[in-house]
Amino acid sequence: MPQRSRRLVPTVIALLCAGSLAGCGLVQRDSGTPSATTSSTAAAPRGLEKFYAQTLDWANCEGGECAELEVPVDYANPDGETLRIAVLRAPAKGKRAGSLVVNPGGPGGSGVEYARYADFIVTPKVRRAYDVVGFDPRGVGQSEPIDCLDGEQLDTFLGFDPTPDDAREKKDFAKNAKTMADGCAKNGGSLTAHMSTVEAAKDMDVLRAALGEDRLDYLGKSYGTFLGATYAEQFPKNVGRFVLDGVVAPDLTSQEFTDGQAKGFELATRTWATSCVDGGSCPLGSTEDAVVAELQRILKVLDKEPIEVDGIRLGEGWATLGVGAALYDQSKWKSLTEALVDARDGEGRALMALANLYADRTGNGEYRGNIMEAIYAVNCLDRQESSDPADYDTAAAKAEKVAPVWGEFIARSSMSCGYWPVKATGTPHPIDAKGAAPIVLVGTTRDPATPYEWATRVHEQMPDSRLITFEGDGHTAYTRSNDCVDGAVDAYLLDGTLPGEDLRC
User: Fold this and answer.
1) Which of 108, 385, 435, 492 would suit a FRET pair with 368, their CA atoms being 20 to 30 Å apart?
2) Domain map of the chain by residue range?
3) CB 102, CB 132: distance < 8 Å
4) Which residues, including other chains, have CB under 8 Å from residue 401's CB and lie 6 or more apart?
5) What is the CATH number of domain 42-146+192-251+427-504?
6) How much is the CA Rg of the chain, to the nearest whole Å?
7) 3-state class of 369 per DSSP?
8) Active site residues
9) Is residue 43 predicted with pLDDT exceeding 90?
């Protein structure tokens, strides 16, 4: 999806919570595996002792218990400015085995909001055994959120024509891309230089210590897999039971990322189109190719003739976000078909509702969180992007060859990072997690946002990892696929039993 995310869990938790739950019951850990302790014995990095020694002051809140964690803005200067990280804990419903820290993706997804849905994001067995703990990463949600653009500016930014047709439109596109960078430079303060995934992973280790855990048990989805892998690289000895679902490969080049995600959304688009045809009387066409062609035609019409929806011009930009949001979960495919038919007839409310879902925007135009800004603040520090518009022309042309529908859209989406006011601190590289406990990876064969090939790529890079393959559609698999996936993940989280080699579900 757009914005070069490692993303890409949409901000709406329901997209991840949809799916069947496994049966109830409690499985105990065996005696030889990590368990919760009253205080962490893992050594605190030098200079950070006061942060690692803190205790969390829990208070009742909606969905569980809430607290704040203090961390340095700049880990190279721990005596300098600090910030507060919002944390929510949903206590275990049975005999407690420890804390399971969760992250829904993004970057910029709220772990606090995610943990509020603890009954749905893990199975009943895991829910009974674990405190489910979510946190808003630095600069996200309730953790002193970075604020780059106001609502009206963000509306314009997201709704801009994503596939410029000529030199003038390309110039306008570059100007629009620069508005995000300029806004963060002006309004983002010190966080603009300190929202990298490496820093978020360091925050997560401070959280581990504050929770009293010697090792971190973790469930990360989508971008959360990149955060988890980064943690494993920095703190291998502190890795407990890690499950990374919807895997992002940390070593992808910009072009590889573009091509991979474009192909992922292209495959999902064609699978949706086939599903529509196979359902009988598809209103968008009688063949897969015809449905895809009609989708492209509708987007081009909206490019030239946007539909007014509650003060928003539903053009190609917003419409594409709506299509992308629906492709994350096959339960939204029927809604997508209906929304496109409505848009073809001049009614854009249904398609705009899907776009709002993606942007975490209400129907009255208010943004519930800051994911659409935070995603840039993180990605632009994690990967250096070109400031030369011609490079995006080249990337778009390459991506279009492998993904005619999505290639250009995704290729141009990272241009804001080319204008970022702070040089990137990260570089793509493989992570082998040497010295860490085995990590369980979960890949979905027709995942649009994190292609299955990325899961196999990371599996090869991590010699001690195990890969669970879900042969299906949609973004991520645990609690939204089948009992085979859920059972294998549960067995690892609850008693340390690794899945068999190359388990396919």
Assistant:
1) 385
2) 42-146+192-251+427-504, 151-183+254-359+386-418
3) yes
4) 407
5) 3.40.50.1820
6) 22
7) coil
8) 222, 447, 475
9) no
